[in-house]
Design a protein that fits this description.
mainly alpha, 70% helix, 443 residues, globular, 10 strands, two-stranded antiparallel sheet
């Protein structure tokens, strides 16, 4: 590996670590606010206990997310100075707004954590709602900056210089809507499934624990609502990518030859040399149907682009297949849960279903990680699509193996600390509340 690859690897590792806490920072405050809302509505202590437990977990995750996000902001300037010099004036607005959203979230999280019995119950709940809203807005502003890298807008180039910068047009670029929608829903789905898996695990050990049953009900509701919407947003995103970044779409689908009535390839081993994908499951005309809703539509292949503008097809195609596969498994589970609830009108708690939910817990974050691989690796060799190559943006500094190894060790240490702290929170939930007035099946 050379220094350029170490710079890319450090950024990739930092993003892979931070995106977990960013997604949880969007999803957990929503669950926290929903739990307190249920308490205000029903006055059942189990919901009060639940929102307090989730608030503690949210605080831990927020702290680590703030650290990893700060590191990322420094890395943008240290590892990619040419990019920041070029793009700073254009995408400065969403980053500044993200800072305001972050501080708002921090302020109201402090009110939420220390405001028990100090402010009115409704005001306390509203502070939790503001924490959730600020977390969502923070994610939206960051994603719009990334969307600009995929679909640059809001400026003109005159003799190699940037002029007529329009930060509003840059923030609301053609890729921003579908990326924001897809990522926000992904955060809700991933958080919902992870929380559901944790509480399903404990419910398997103690089927009468009302705390875990209540938690399972709230988190399952979020997962069951958001997962089908996420699949629909994925369809919208794929068609937007086909229009805005056809080379990325071709790599996602391992589609080498431009043709009408293109087949949808699942799995397989792409080969740039032979421009074919061996051992793939081919669905005739499937790609044309998905991209244009027309089985005879023409789909652009990689052959229409210079070889030095191809992304790594194998990494992008396999990551895309993993993301879609994980999404389909989660969709199947939510359909099953919804059907059982409609049939029996109670929280589904069959042993086989709880076991399947536990096993599916990591799938949401697996989909997020592989989805970001598709987004970032699929844009290569461009850091700003069609404008600046990644190699042109990298720092000329040498010895980047040192910060890469250092930050990797730091992130591993932080991960261990977070797991230890959250594990203590989980283990403290054994029989945390007295008998409740409602029946377990109604919680």
């Amino acid at each position: 590996m050379n220094d350029f690859l170490f710079a890319r690897s450090q950024m990739a590792m930092s993003l892979a670590f931070h995106i977990v806490f960013a997604a949880l920072g969007i999803g957990m405050p929503l669950l926290m606010a929903l739990a307190e809302g249920m308490y205000l509505r029903t006055k059942q202590p189990v919901y009060l206990n639940l929102c307090k437990r989730w608030a503690k977990g949210t605080a831990i995750l927020f702290a680590v997310g703030a650290v990893s996000g700060t590191v990322l902001s420094f890395e943008l300037g240290l590892l990619w100075p040419s990019f920041m010099e070029y793009a700073g004036a254009i995408i400065g607005m969403p980053f500044s707004l993200e800072g305001f959203a972050f501080f708002t979230e921090a302020i109201f999280l402090g009110v939420y954590l220390y405001g028990w019995k100090r402010v009115a119950p409704l005001i306390h709940w509203l502070s939790g709602v503001l924490v959730a809203a600020s977390g969502i807005l923070s994610g939206i502003f960051v994603v719009t900056a990334n969307a600009w890298m995929n679909s640059p807008a809001g400026f003109k180039m005159v003799e190699g210089k940037i002029v007529d910068v329009d930060p509003i047009a840059a923030m609301f670029n053609p890729a921003s809507l579908h990326e924001v929608l897809h990522m926000t829903l992904a955060a809700f789905v991933a958080t919902g499934f992870l929380v559901v898996a944790v509480h399903a695990f404990f419910l398997l050990r103690d089927r009468n624990n009302l705390f875990h049953r209540a938690a399972l009900g709230i988190a399952l509701s979020v997962a069951c609502v958001c997962t089908p919407l996420q699949i629909l947003s994925g369809d919208v995103s794929a068609r937007a990518v086909a229009r805005l970044q056809p080379a990325k779409l071709a790599a996602m689908e391992a589609h080498y030859r431009t043709q009408a009535g293109a087949a949808l390839l699942i799995g397989g081993i792409p080969s740039d040399g032979t421009m074919a994908t061996d051992y793939a499951l081919a669905i005739p005309r499937g790609l044309s149907l998905l991209i244009a809703h027309d089985p005879n539509a023409r789909v652009v292949g990689l052959e229409d682009f210079p070889r030095d503008q191809w992304p790594n097809v194998r990494i992008v195609h396999w990551s895309f297949d993993i993301m879609v596969g994980a999404g389909m498994v989660m969709l199947l589970l939510t359909v099953c849960v919804s059907w059982l609830w409609l049939k029996h009108r109670r929280l589904p708690d069959k042993t086989w279903l709880l076991g399947a939910i536990v096993a599916s817990g990591p799938l949401g974050f697996l989909a997020i990680e592989t989805g970001w691989v598709v987004t970032e690796v699929g844009r290569q060799p461009w850091i700003i699509y069609g404008v600046m190559r990644t190699s042109e943006a990298a720092t000329p500094m040498r010895g980047l193996v040192v910060p890469f190894v250092t930050f990797t060790v730091v992130y591993i240490f932080l991960a261990v600390v977070v797991v230890f702290l959250l594990r203590r929170q989980f283990l403290e939930t054994a029989n945390p509340v007295p008998d409740q007035p409602a029946r377990a099946a109604d919680v």
